[in-house]
Amino acid sequence: MTSLPETSTDTQNGKKFRLVVRSAEEAVRVIRDKLGDKAKVLSVRQVGGEGLKRFISSPKLEVIAQVLEDGGAEMQEQAPMPEPQRIVPETKDEKVAVSPKQPVQTQDVSSSNISDENKLESKSLSNFDLLAKFGFDQSLLSDIQSWANWKILKDASIADALKEITIGLSDRFRGLESFPVTEKVALLGGPGVGKTTTLCKFLAHEVFMNKTTPSVLKIENGVPNPDDALRIFCEVVGVTLYRESESLPEVNQQCPLFLDFPGLAMSEIEEWRNANEVLNNLQVETRILVVNGAYDRDIISKYIRSARYLNASHLAITHFDEMSNSTKLWPIIFNSNLTPICVCNGQNVTGDFSTSVLNQFISKTFPEELYSKGFSTYQRL
Predict the structure, then answer these.
(1) In the chain, where do the E strands start and end?
(2) Is the separation of the CB atoms in 27 and 41 below 8 Å?
(3) Where do the DSSP E strands lie in 300-351?
(4) pTM given for the model
(5) Which segments within 95-239 are labelled E, that is strand?
(6) Rounded Cα distance, 348 and 364, in Å
(7) C-alpha count within 13 angstroms, C-beta hemisphere, residue 43
(8) Which of 1.20.1530.20, 1.10.132.80, 3.40.190.150, 3.40.50.300 is the CATH number of 184-363?
């Protein structure tokens, strides 16, 4: 394990480091603690593993940070770093040691030119204008303006504003009512939103992660519900697919039951009511509404209103990878009375799936330009 040079910190000036972290909050902490207050973030993007690893592990953030020319003194003033957590530039084939509890991978990406194309064009814009300029949803901006600390936020540095908004959104998210997930789970929603693909992701999670033995019940309910893709997937992962509720095995936490419904048309309220009757007869408490996150906000809201006819308890968001940012979804989840349960980032049925909804939302809330501008001016807490 190579440690940070104890000689002149001038050798660190201008160096660029690559960190792979679990969340934006972790990135801020690691950069400030290990690289100093003068370190500047050049870019942030979401990364993940390949194949099944992408499903088993939560997506991470890749952060490129640079120690500015005048940052050496700041680094010298920091307390010595514990041996397992040192951050060092990488030589040709040299990896950086990280803490086993905080799997942050850091390496020198030294080359002189990581472009800073996304710098903010105007320093004179207000925080509200900056957020609006970079795609913040107007509904969320209006909500933030109603916060008790808005008068402080609007005049704060962009770095402090970003930090406080992140904290505010996170606190509100954690304050949402959280409904438990029971042994019977139904996935419902409009046609084509990704219900069956999401169901396959849940099945893979149960089989590979929770080591349970799930089963699936196909519900027709008078509406055609093709099952070729689901049937094939169930065969591959060893899950039994049933078409009659009378033949179901005993259901418990070790042997959960998932119900696959046909798509419910938004305007056909009777279909939603009929689905609710089926769910009641089968004593299904966990009712997940699946929505396409790339849809217009008004359409998503209409589906949520329709889902009240079947007493939906949870919310799953698909097509998250197709969104430029997640800001339009914050007001929706805050007002839906549904517990966010998962985010789907693609079509890979054994991956592109995360139950860390808050981290997913935060990572896709602020544009890279604002992270780049804000992180470099964070003050030590």
Answers:
(1) 16-21, 39-47, 60-67, 105-108, 184-189, 215-218, 240-242, 257-260, 286-292, 314-318, 339-344, 353-354
(2) yes
(3) 314-318, 339-344
(4) 0.66
(5) 105-108, 184-189, 215-218
(6) 20
(7) 15
(8) 3.40.50.300
Q: Answer left, alpha or beta for residue 135, where phi above 0 means left and psi between -120 and 50 means alpha.
A: left
CA 305/CA 276 separation, integer angstroms:
14
Helices (H) and strands (E) in the chain, counts: 14, 12
Six-digit token string for 241: 């697919």
Cα-only R_g, the chain: 24
Which tens digits make up the pLDDT trace of 272-321? 999 999 999 999 999 999 999 999 999 999 999 999 999 999 999 999 99
DSSP 3-state percent helix, strand, coil across the chain (nearest 5): 40, 15, 45
Nearby residues of 102 by Cβ (< 8 Å), 6 or more positions away: 26, 30, 85
Where do we find the tokens 């952060």? 63
For residue range 89-148, list pLDDT tens digits in order: 333 333 333 334 444 444 444 433 333 434 444 455 788 888 888 788 999 999 999 999
Helix 195-204 and helix 228-237, axial crossing angle in degrees, nearest 10: 0
Residue written as token pair 């009512």? 177
Domain boundaries, the chain: 9-115, 184-363
- Mention every residue, 6+ apart, whose C-beta is less than 8 A from residue 52: 208, 350, 351
Cβ pair 343, 333 in contact under 8 A: no
Task: List the one residue out of 183, 179, 185, 204 whose CA is nearest residue 259.
Answer: 185
From residue 152, alpha-carbon distances to 144, 147, 160 in Å are 12, 10, 10
